[in-house]
Amino acid sequence: MDPDRPDWERDGRDWPNREASRFVRAGGLRWHVQVMGEGPPLLLLHGTGAATHSWRSLAPLLAERFTVVAPDLPGHGFTSPFPRGRPSLTGMARAVADLLAELELAPQVAVGHSAGAAIEIRMTLDGAIAPALLVGLNGALLPFGGIAGQLFPPMAKVLFLNPLAPRLFSWAADRGQVERLLRNTGSKIDERGLELYGRLFRTPGHVAGALGMMANWDLESFERDLGRLATPTLLLVGGNDQAVLPDVSFQVRDRLADSTVKVLRGLGHLAHEEDPAQVAALILERAAGLAPPTLDDDHAA
Questions:
Q1: What is the C-alpha to C-alpha distance for residues 153 and 107, in angstroms, rounded to an integer?
Q2: N or C end: fewer C-beta atoms under 10 angstroms in the chain?
Q3: Residue 84 has what DSSP assignment?
Q4: Is residue 238 within a helix (H) or strand (E), and if so which, with residue range?
Q5: Rg (CA), the chain
């Protein structure tokens, strides 16, 4: 057991939807995955720095209609980090594809938050998945512009390469710091959410996973490929999002063949945690028009 990584018996003792959790080995990683519900498979991919707790209220609502599959991404939560190589967008997409192959699941719907939206689209473009619907929640789908684009990735890389940085960050992650960090996303998170994020942010291994993902995230080639995406795409956007400005989703919409933007008034970057009922209703409404799944029984649960 790595003392710097979140520990399931300690940090996961009361993890949201714990009864749906399982641990799976795939692609050289030990994954924490939550599976719940019945029906065609629906994939949930969280964003940088989060974990399955981010879906604590949304997943059960979607599970009324779908078999929901929600992993902790590599290096996040209770999933082990990449043993070698870099946690790039392509690397993350391949890793999730390995997990789905091990689970024998082919998602009919793929829902991703922030960087998770980029992963699901990358998987679709690469032919790793073929969903009938993609949903991006405040998707981080374009490179940072201006000075942020010049400074942010190199700064994250420096922090990632410094072995002391995750430990120093985790030591500083008291409740006040966590609350300010989340508030800066434009979202108002409940007490339960604050406690869970704080639990992870105080763990150096989880912080290292988030820094590594940010340090190796390259959206320039991804941006060039976006125009090839033909899958129907629903882009849900928090009107108060301060982390990924709403304009990003409108720019992406104009590049895609079949996409719709829906603005969630009064919500921020973590809109699915602030108002899971509204987000679930929009996803289920859009998914209701999908053709019946043609997957065989081995891929249904």
A1: 31
A2: N
A3: S
A4: strand 233-238
A5: 18
CA distance 59 to 51: 13
**Burial level of 175, CB count in 10 A (0-12/13-18/19+)?**
exposed
| Half-sphere exposure (Cβ direction) of 60: Cα atoms closer than 13 Å | 10
The whole-number average pLDDT for the span 139-151 is: 62
Phi, psi of 190, deg, nearest 5: -70, 175
3-state DSSP call for residue 36? strand
263: β partners: 237
Question: Alpha-carbon distance 141 to 119, whole Å?
Answer: 9
Element (H, E) at 276: helix 276-287
Specify whether the CB–CB gap between 51 and 119 falls below 8 A.
no
74 in Cβ contact with 9 (< 8 Å)? no
3-class DSSP state of 182: helix
What is the residue whose two structure tokens read 């795409």? 233
Q: Given pLDDT bands bounded at 50, 70 and 90, which one contains residue 2?
A: confident
Q: How far apart are CA 121 and CA 229, in angstroms?
A: 8
- Does pTM top 0.85 for this prediction? yes
